[in-house]
Amino acid sequence: MAKIPVINREVSWLSFNERVLQEAVDIKNPVIERLRFLGIFSNNMDEFFRVRVGSLFRKISVDHDKKDKLLLAQIHKTVVRLQHSAEKIMSDLKKELEKNNVFLIDNTKLNKEQGEFVKDYFTQKVRPLLFPIMIKSAPKFPDLHDDTLYLAVLLRDSKEDEEDEYAIIEIPDSIPRFVILPDSNGKKFVMFVDDIIRYNLKDIFTLFEEYDTFKAYSIKVTRDAELDIAADVSKSLSELLSYSIKQRAKGAAVRFVYDLKIPDNLLNFILKKSKITETEILIPGGKYHNARDYMKFPSFGIATHEYAVQKPLEHPDLKSGVSMFKVLKQKDVLLQYPYHSFTHVLDFLRDAAIDPKVRTIRMTIYRLAKESAIINALVNAAHNGKKVMVLMEIQARFDERANIKYAKTLQEAGVNVVFGLKNLKVHSKLILISRRERNRTVRYACVGTGNFNKDTAKVFSDVSLFTLDKRITVDLQNLFKFFEDLYKPYKYKHIILSPFNTRKKINSFINKEIANAKLGKRAEIFLKMNSLNDDGMVKKIYSAAAAGVKVRLLVRGICSVAQGLANFNENLEVRSLVGRYLEHSRIFIFHNAGHPKYFISSADFLTRNLDNRIEVTCPIYDTKIKNEIREFVEMQWTDNVKMRVLDHKLSNSYFVDGKSKKIEAHIDYYNYLRKQK
């Protein structure tokens, strides 16, 4: 097979974030939702620089590879282009808000009443939290913290009798970014807290009577988020991580965003004092940064400004007041978030915590909600005499501090908390409950594609399988023994487990489809995931398409496989669904000569998920649930409103099928389940 061009991971990720930006443009989305997509775009970009660009800088510092330097230049060019697009989109959205009598105004547009309100708000809420630093005379230039918003202030004497003075003000994140002003003539007004500070600059610097002109410009530094965990055997992993988290705020700068209108002298002074010399990290922007805060933009309670509410549904098999243990004796159950309520997971754990027949509860935890009822259920179970074991992954990026706190809470309650290995994250999503029934042990399991997090379950599209099928529960029992017995190896007959055999098993399934295609048999593969970048898997997928296997890929984010290349047009289709919900479930289907194999998984096709993490890919044996999964993926695949085609040009063009009926999976599938209920 001829050499196939593989799309670079970072380039593909930026293309994904451009799809998010498309949602901020889409006039079919309500105006506040478009603002929120702009916030999601910004938040994604922050993490991209903290993680991916940080890694690229570290790599360049070691091997000085010219290809990496060219990639960095390409990233910079793309980011600047997207930044300009985001600024234009925000300008358009402000006009759209004004059509709806909502005005986002700045410090230059206040009337007398608004000015008095802003001054009072500043005095009462903002001023006590501000501590300006006069950076020209300061003995040491302040450390600019990661992703913190600052105002660089210019103090000037208009008569030019005095030399300009400079100051830095950190905008506190403990107050809302947006402040609602009093209504006027049926119009609603809102203001950035940045502009409230700008409006009151003279009051902040009253000591400096020689200056009569005060101007402030937004700046922000993004730093490398990689944790450098020291090899100190005298300290626990949680102690080492706690120290590393503190050091993260002082990581190397990987992006410096600044207001284009900032005077050159002030900008150059800050860059010099911050020891920022690489032009690749300088990103010119507008008046405001940290656009991720648009995700919290006030809606003013106007229904047409937001999506119509889709209240999570009670699963038809899980009626209120009926124990899940009783239901699962009759059938397996598949929950699909955010369409189904996450409350069923909490009910599963609450029942286990008080059920006198339950002996043990075992669970893996990667990310939880800020206020998690999961922890309360596990603590109560321990207090009720259950043997509770939790594999707590405290290396979940940006959630390390929260997970360390939760781990301590569980340990204090008597829960056996096991931590993952330093270089082997446990990314699987598992619950295993053992119950004594008629003198024998029956195990009930939950295997999911997403975190046990009630907050993200409202917006992340994920699935969880509840089952007492021994083929699955025995393997999970052995996996938890593996966690508890210092990683003593066990054999797994049904679940597929990274880093041990996921790559081998997936390859074998694809090879079987290739063999069937060569025999003239029907051969098909459907893969749904967040990211697909592993070099071996990319080549294997192209090989399957070249051999005649019909391959359909539904990949939300990074995807190094593209359709539209010669030799694959008929057999390879690659799409991405970006819309109201964030697609997060991993579902793999292999035709298998008319006896399809269905799997759900916590693993994407990234090298880290296949080779460096504990990931569980779980077979689906229940026929009814196979049908449910098929109906779900087929509706998603036929979406002709929010679906994009992933081609080698990274055009992000919308999928067009020529049909008059519009299918928007995130809405239509909810309505489909609601009718079933």
Describe the structure.
The chain has 677 residues and is an alpha/beta fold. The chain has three domains: 102-305, 2-Layer Sandwich (polyphosphate kinase like), CATH 3.30.1840; 324-491, Endonuclease, Chain A, CATH 3.30.870; 497-676, 2-Layer Sandwich (Endonuclease, Chain A), CATH 3.30.870.10. It contains 18 helices and 26 strands. Strands 14, 18, 19, 20, 21, 23, 24, 25 and 26 form a nine-stranded mixed sheet that branches. Helix 15 (535-546) links the parallel strand 19 (524-529) and strand 20 (550-555). Helix 1 (9-25) packs antiparallel against helix 2 (31-63) and helix 4 (112-126) packs across helix 5. The longest helix is centred in the first third of the chain and has 34 residues, at 66-99. The protein is globular. The model is unreliable at 229-234 and 240-245 (pLDDT under 50).
Feature tags:
about 675 residues, alpha/beta, polyphosphate kinase like, Endonuclease, Chain A, 3 domains, nine-stranded mixed sheet, 18 helices
DSSP strand count: 26
Low-confidence stretches: 229-234, 240-245
Cα end-to-end separation: 50 Å
Which CATH C-level class of the largest domain is it? Alpha Beta
Query: What would you call the structural class?
Result: alpha/beta
Tell me the overall shape.
globular
Write down the domain tally: 3
| CATH topology value of the largest domain | polyphosphate kinase like
Portion of residues in beta strands equals 15-25%
Percent range of helical residues: 25-40%
CA-based gyration radius? 27 Å
